[in-house]
Specification:
This protein is mainly alpha-helical and about 325 residues long. The chain has helices at about 1-20, 25-30, 35-60, 70-90, 95-100, 105-130, 140-145, 150-175, 180-195, 210-220, 225-255, 265-270, 275-295, 300-310, 310-330. It contains 15 helices and no strands. Helix 2 crosses helix 4 (about 70-90) and helix 14 (about 300-310) crosses helix 15 (about 310-330).
C-alpha cells in the first residue's frame, strides 16, 4: 500500500507539472489576475470529477467523504489560506513538487508550514470556539440523494457548469494553451481512483502532513489533535513524497531542474532581494498551513476533493480562498 501511495503521489505531481500548475509564477499570476491556469484546471477537475465520482459511488465502488461545514473555520481559514497562497505562490500539495524542481523558496515555505503545524496543534484547544458553529456535512447528495433522478440530473448539470466556466475563463484570457484541460481531467480521474473502496478509500489531501511531521519531530504527540491526524498524516507524507520524486525526476528528464529563489513574477513586483523572498516564503507557508488547518483542508483536500463531491463546505471554502487570494494579489503585488 505504501508503494501505491507513492505512485499516486508521483502521478499527482506529474499532472501538476504537465501544465505547470505547481509553479510560483502560475499561482501568483492567478492572484494578480494575469494567469488563470490554476482556476481553469480546478474548475474542469471539479466538473469532471463530480460526474465520475457520483457514478462510481452510485455503482457501489466508492463512498462519500464530506468535510463538515465549520462556519468560522471555513470562512476565516479560507481567507487566511488565500492570503498565504498569494504571498507564497504555492499550495501545500505543490510545495514538494516545486522543491523537487529546485525551488529553494518552496523549502522555506515548507519550513514555515511545519512551524505553523506544531503551533496550531498547541493552539487547537483555544481556537475551537472560533471554528464553529458546525453546520454538518452538507452536499448535493445529502440534500437530494434519496431522489436519484433529481440528484444525477443536478450533478451532471452542475458538473457541466464548472467545465463551461473554465472555458469562459479561457476565452477571457485569450489563451491558446489547453494543457489545463488535460491536467484538470487527470486530477479528476486520479481523485476517482483514490476514492475507490478497493483502493485507498479516502480523498487526496496535503495539509495534514505538515502538523503530522512537525508534531512528530518536536514530540508534540501526546494530544487529541495528533491522534486525530495521525492516520491521514502518514498517508499524505507518502503521497507528497511521491509528488517530490515526480518533481525531481520529471524536471531532470525535461532538463528543467534549476536551483531557483527569485522567480520572474516575484522580481517583477517585489525586486531581486534573496533574503526578502526567503522571509516572505516562510511567512507565506506559515499563514497557508494555519488557514488550511482551521478550515480542515486545503486546495487538494477541500477545493478539489470536496468540490468533486459538490460539498457545500468545500465550495464555500473555495470562495473565501479566492477572495483572500485576490485581495492579497491586489495589495501585496503592487
Amino acid at each position: 500500500m505504501n508503494a501505491v501511495t507513492l505512485i499516486l503521489g508521483f502521478l499527482f505531481g506529474a499532472t501538476l507539472q504537465y501544465a505547470n500548475l505547481n509553479r510560483y509564477n502560475v499561482i501568483s499570476g492567478m492572484a494578480t489576475l494575469e494567469n488563470y491556469a490554476v482556476a481553469k484546471a480546478i474548475a474542469v477537475a471539479i466538473g469532471v470529477g463530480a460526474i465520475i465520482i457520483a457514478i462510481e459511488i452510485g455503482l457501489g465502488f466508492a463512498t462519500y467523504h464530506i468535510k463538515p461545514f465549520l462556519l468560522g473555520g471555513i470562512a476565516i481559514g479560507g481567507i487566511i489560506f488565500g492570503v498565504g497562497m498569494a504571498i507564497l505562490g504555492y499550495c501545500p500539495g505543490t510545495l514538494p513538487v516545486s522543491l523537487g524542481e529546485g525551488s529553494v523558496d518552496a523549502l522555506l515555505g515548507i519550513t514555515g508550514g511545519l512551524a505553523a503545524g506544531v503551533i496550531y496543534t498547541l493552539l487547537v484547544p483555544s481556537v475551537q470556539s472560533v471554528l464553529g458553529p458546525d453546520l454538518g456535512s452538507i452536499s448535493l447528495y445529502t440534500l437530494v440523494g434519496q431522489h436519484h433522478f433529481i440528484f444525477y440530473t443536478l450533478d451532471i448539470v452542475l458538473g457541466t457548469v464548472f467545465i463551461l466556466a473554465a472555458f469562459i475563463l479561457n476565452k477571457k484570457e485569450k489563451s491558446t494553451n489547453y494543457k489545463w484541460v488535460y491536467a484538470g481531467t487527470g486530477l479528476a480521474i486520479l481523485n476517482a481512483v483514490v476514492f475507490l473502496t478497493a483502493g485507498t478509500n479516502r480523498i487526496i489531501g496535503a495539509s495534514t502532513a505538515y502538523p503530522f511531521v512537525a508534531d512528530f519531530i518536536t514530540g508534540t504527540t501526546q494530544n487529541g489533535y495528533f491522534s486525530k491526524i495521525q492516520g491521514p498524516g502518514q498517508w499524505e507524507v507518502l503521497f507528497l513524497g511521491g509528488a517530490f520524486i515526480s518533481g525531481v525526476v520529471i524536471s531532470l528528464f525535461r532538463k528543467e531542474f534549476k536551483i531557483t529563489i527569485i522567480h520572474s513574477n516575484w522580481a517583477k513586483y517585489k525586486g531581486n532581494s534573496v533574503s526578502k523572498r526567503l522571509i516572505w516564503s516562510f511567512i507565506g507557508g506559515f499563514i497557508l498551513i494555519i488557514g488550511a488547518r482551521m478550515a480542515g483542508g486545503c486546495t487538494s483536500g477541500h477545493i478539489l476533493s470536496g468540490g468533486m463531491q459538490l460539498s457545500l463546505s468545500s465550495l464555500v471554502f473555495a470562495v473565501f480562498v479566492f477572495g483572500g487570494l485576490l485581495i492579497t494579489g491586489k495589495y501585496f503585488y503592487k
